[in-house]
């Protein structure tokens, strides 16, 4: 494999960057909808929170009480991090620093991979690089695009919060922290783009790093109530909180983002000029000359295409479940030394109820994230279609329904697998933390995880509906998944009316373990999932392919 | 265009297909008899690939009759596809599947694969089946689909510009394979821009333009429709040449005559020339290139300049002085 034959190191300089300006304009032109949508939706959500919190907690005493009770609760700390300041701004930062950091990271990784590895994988880069385009121009243009997007995001957040009356310094700090976290992961994405020839895998790798950063921070914050855990200092998502916007800003933490992004981007820069176009540092190995018996038709093919993704998700859920399970017991540990928090907890139903609430929150979060897997698995169909790989398969003796079913089975059953693994991880993590894993408790936790499935299937069904009936809008399924995530994550803090919360399929599920179970919501969700899938398949049968 | 036998391998009549406001197919006809190699020609964007995708049941016809091996390609797609092998002009492979795996997969998705023939084809096409997806070059990706198609046990091969990216040696192997398929009684629909390929392989061809069939027939029949160039030096002044049907681009310089004539009207022209006494005569037979180029060019087909002999006849009868464009008689 000559994929990474060392390029002559001497020939560098400005020629490496030739064409960056043109590529930057091309990227901005291609992203003229995507970037403004991300920036405005995310930025205004963060900025808009201050008004909502002001209406909900209008006295300083109420806010102080909220801060105290939240800091006393390990589950809440794991979710949002500790409350550093109980002003309105401080609460916005508490609620949004982690959430905004993760979403800014996702936006940045999508931008960077889209303009680097995806261009190479599709062969478009070859045509561009045959023109006056330097070896490092694509990565530079991608990073500049990500920089502009994150700068705009920081500006929208800072200006929006300042305009709604929050201190300017804190607003700027929060905006810069979230944008800085985005830039850090833009840098990480440039490395991932060098490692693999697949844009999908590069996105997955970067996404896994984002997930790891979140889990590290969550574990660290669950263990300590003042953000002092080293785990939160390893995690860039943790840095975002350590900036302490509105609570005595620690501006120097922003330097961590700058340094981290520079190092990560620098590694990407170094690697990109040392490899061949279209190749990677993890080159493709030769495969078998004959197909194994398992590759025997539409189902065999779909399994072959999706199994790695499913394996990755299952592994991620096992780890996340284990970590969250391990900190679930933290709630009762923290109570002892503070009489006031003990009273709050008792009012909330005692330590067992509190552990259940935490586990239920974690299960709900795993469910919403699993919907991302399910939608992605369904939309593989659209990817195969637009990538012109479905055409030769459908020119074989494979009906459309069979072809679609082969991927849908993996999407629907795969989400069961992912949730089951996550549930087992949660139960085992919890059991090993409390040193006692009885069968009833284990069953309750795994059952709670599996109870999320009807809601996941609704989103998978809606994705199928879009793919079958409105194929050009199939990617809108991501919007539905994102909206459910946003409703579940920040909806409660915004005190949205119930009908708005009910738009998310997850809000219809009982809070398990611990809650009351009735069959009705499950049946409704399953019915909606089945109907939308069926309508999508009927649409698919009638429409043109390609 | 002959009457369609009910057993035609492919029968398309008056096929229409629009994408929004774009009219891709506008009354297309196509008839392919069982066991023939049928050339499917036309300029870029004429609607060849759209037609093929209708035949594969990937697109639904707006209007018109489409029968494939006696069945409906939309409703009986799966059943039909067991008997069909398809090679697109731009083969895309899965990144993480080897070429050999893709060949086997396609075989399993069709009627099955002849293992011995698969091995033999891999050797003839010099294809390494252990490489994966994108590590193949354009030509090698085509070979993957070609080996899968030729090794499959099917009745009909639909090949859409299948040799794009193949080197001349491989092009030769491809032609041998198509001839073997024909000898085994299989039907081939071959869309191609390579005239040499069409000339070497096709029993009959159909030429389409702007979603319509403009010409269809055997190569001999089509040659007949083309023009022969004649230049002659005469003993006396030419007489009445411009009034003859089928004469184009007549250029008379004193006793030198140069003209083009529809090949089936050549006889009358020669007669007229010999009446004036022929000193020397050069006659260039028609080439297929001329025929194709004439159909590919946009502006000429609309004027009916020799494309359809019937129209030329009618013109000549109505206006004997030769109203056809380009007559430069003194």
Detailed description of the structure:
Chain B: This is ATP-binding cassette domain-containing protein. Chain B: It holds the Pfam family DrrA1-3_C. Chain B: Residues 308-322 have a biased composition (Low complexity). Chain B: Residues 300-330 are annotated as: Disordered. The complex is a heterodimer of chains A (546) and B (330). Chain A is mainly alpha-helical. Residues 1-12 of chain A have low confidence and may be disordered. Chain A starts with 19 loop residues before the first helix and ends with a helix. In chain A, helix 8 (137-163) runs antiparallel to helix 9. Chain A has helices spanning 20-30, 34-56, 60-72, 74-80, 88-115, 117-121, 124-129, 137-163, 168-195, 199-223, 230-234, 236-242, 253-272, 298-328, 330-333, 339-347, 350-386, 390-394, 400-434, 439-450, 453-469, 476-494, 498-501, 519-542. Chain B has helices spanning 48-55, 77-81, 99-109, 115-124, 138-151, 168-183, 195-201, 219-225, 266-276, 288-296, 298-303, 309-318; strands at 10-19, 22-32, 37-41, 63-68, 84-87, 156-160, 187-191, 204-209, 212-218, 227-234, 247-253, 256-262, 278-284. Chain B folds into two domains: 10-218, 3-Layer(aba) Sandwich (Rossmann fold); 226-318, Malonyl-CoA ACP transacylase, ACP-binding (Alpha-Beta Plaits). By secondary structure, chain B is of the alpha/beta class. The relative contact order of chain B is 0.12. In chain B, the strands form three sheets. In chain B, strands 5-6-7-3-8-9 form a six-stranded mixed β-sheet, sandwiched between helices. Chain B starts with 9 loop residues before the first strand and ends in a 12-residue tail after the last helix. The interface between A and B is large, with 41 and 43 residues.
């Amino acid at each position: 494999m000559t994929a990474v034959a060392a390029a002559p190191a001497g020939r560098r300089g400005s020629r490496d960057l030739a064409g960056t300006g043109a590529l930057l304009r091309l990227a901005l032109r291609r992203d003229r909808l995507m970037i403004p949508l991300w920036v405005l939706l995310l930025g205004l959500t963060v900025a808009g929170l201050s008004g909502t919190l002001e209406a909900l907690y209008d006295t300083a005493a109420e806010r102080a009480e909220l801060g105290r009770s939240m800091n006393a609760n390990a589950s809440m700390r794991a979710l949002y991090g500790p409350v550093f300041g109980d002003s309105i701004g401080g609460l916005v930062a508490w609620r949004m620093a982690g959430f905004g950091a993760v979403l800014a990271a996702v936006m940045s990784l999508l931008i960077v991979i889209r303009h680097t590895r995806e261009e190479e994988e599709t062969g478009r880069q070859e045509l561009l690089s045959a023109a006056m385009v330097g070896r490092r121009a694509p990565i530079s243009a991608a990073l500049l695009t990500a920089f502009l997007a994150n700068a705009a995001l920081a500006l929208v957040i800072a200006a929006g919060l300042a305009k709604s009356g929050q201190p300017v310094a804190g607003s700027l700090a929060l905006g810069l922290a979230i944008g800085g976290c985005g830039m850090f992961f833009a840098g990480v994405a440039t490395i991932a783009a060098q490692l693999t020839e697949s844009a999908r895998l590069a996105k997955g790798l970067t996404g896994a790093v984002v997930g790891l950063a979140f889990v590290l921070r969550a574990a660290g914050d669950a263990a300590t109530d003042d953000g002092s855990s080293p785990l939160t200092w390893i995690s860039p998502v943790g840095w975002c909180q350590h900036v302490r916007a509105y609570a005595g800003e620690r501006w120097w933490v922003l330097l961590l983002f700058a340094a981290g992004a520079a190092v990560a981007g620098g590694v990407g820069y170094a690697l990109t000029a040392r490899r061949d176009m279209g190749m990677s540092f993890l080159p493709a190995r030769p495969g078998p000359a004959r197909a194994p018996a398992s590759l025997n038709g539409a189902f065999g093919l779909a399994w072959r295409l999706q199994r790695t993704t499913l394996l990755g998700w299952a592994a991620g859920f096992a780890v996340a479940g284990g970590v969250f399970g391990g900190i679930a017991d933290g709630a009762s540990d923290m109570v002892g030394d503070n009489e006031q928090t003990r009273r709050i907890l008792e009012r909330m139903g005692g330590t067992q109820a509190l552990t259940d609430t935490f586990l239920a929150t974690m299960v709900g979060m795993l469910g919403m994230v699993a919907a991302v897997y399910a939608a992605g698995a369904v939309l593989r169909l659209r990817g195969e279609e637009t990538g012109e790989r479905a055409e030769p398969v459908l020119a074989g003796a494979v009906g459309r329904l069979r072809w679609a079913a082969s991927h849908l089975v993996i999407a629907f059953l795969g989400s069961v697998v992912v949730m089951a693994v996550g549930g087992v991880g949660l139960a085992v993590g919890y059991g090993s933390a409390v040193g006692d894993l009885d069968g009833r408790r284990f069953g309750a936790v795994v059952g709670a995880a599996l109870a999320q499935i009807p809601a996941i299937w609704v989103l998978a069904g809606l994705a199928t509906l879009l793919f079958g009936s409105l194929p050009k809008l199939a990617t809108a399924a991501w919007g539905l998944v994102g909206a459910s995530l946003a409703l579940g994550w920040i909806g409660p803090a915004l005190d949205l009316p119930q009908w708005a919360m009910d738009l998310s399929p997850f809000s219809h599920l009982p809070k398990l373990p611990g809650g009351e179970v009735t069959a009705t919501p499950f049946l409704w969700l399953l019915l909606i999932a089945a109907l939308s899938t069926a309508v999508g398949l009927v649409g698919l049968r009638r429409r043109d392919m390609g | 265009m002959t009457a369609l036998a009910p057993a035609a391998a492919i029968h398309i009549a008056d096929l229409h297909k629009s994408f929004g406001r774009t009219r891709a197919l506008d009354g297309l006809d196509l008839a392919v008899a069982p066991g023939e190699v049928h050339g499917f020609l036309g300029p870029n964007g004429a609607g060849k690939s759209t037609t093929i995708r209708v035949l594969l049941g990937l697109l639904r016809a707006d209007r018109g009759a489409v029968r494939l091996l006696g069945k409906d390609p939309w409703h009986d797609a799966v059943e039909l596809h067991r008997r069909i092998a398809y090679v697109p002009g731009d083969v895309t492979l899965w990144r993480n599947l080897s070429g050999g795996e893709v060949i086997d997969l396609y075989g399993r998705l069709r009627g099955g694969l002849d293992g011995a023939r698969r091995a033999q084809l891999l050797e003839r096409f010099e294809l390494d089946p252990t490489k994966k997806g994108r590590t193949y070059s354009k030509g090698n990706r085509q070979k993957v689909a070609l080996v899968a198609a030729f090794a499959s046990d099917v009745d009909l091969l639909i090949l859409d510009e299948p040799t794009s990216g193949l080197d001349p040696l491989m092009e030769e192997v491809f032609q041998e394979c198509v001839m073997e398929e024909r000898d085994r009684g299989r039907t081939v629909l071959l869309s191609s821009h390579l005239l040499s390929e069409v000339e070497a392989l096709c029993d009959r061809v159909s030429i389409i333009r702007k979603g319509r069939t403009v010409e269809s027939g055997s190569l001999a029949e089509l040659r007949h429709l083309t023009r022969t160039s004649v230049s002659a030096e005469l003993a006396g002044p030419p007489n009445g040449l411009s009034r003859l049907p089928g004469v184009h681009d007549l250029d008379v310089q004193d006793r030198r005559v140069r003209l083009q004539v529809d090949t089936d009207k050549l006889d009358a022209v020669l007669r007229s020339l010999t009446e004036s006494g022929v000193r020397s005569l050069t006659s260039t037979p028609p080439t297929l290139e001329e025929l194709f180029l004439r159909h590919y060019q946009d502006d000429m087909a609309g004027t009916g300049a020799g494309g359809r002999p019937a129209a030329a006849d009618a013109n000549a009868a109505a206006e004997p002085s030769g109203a056809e464009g380009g007559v430069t008689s003194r």
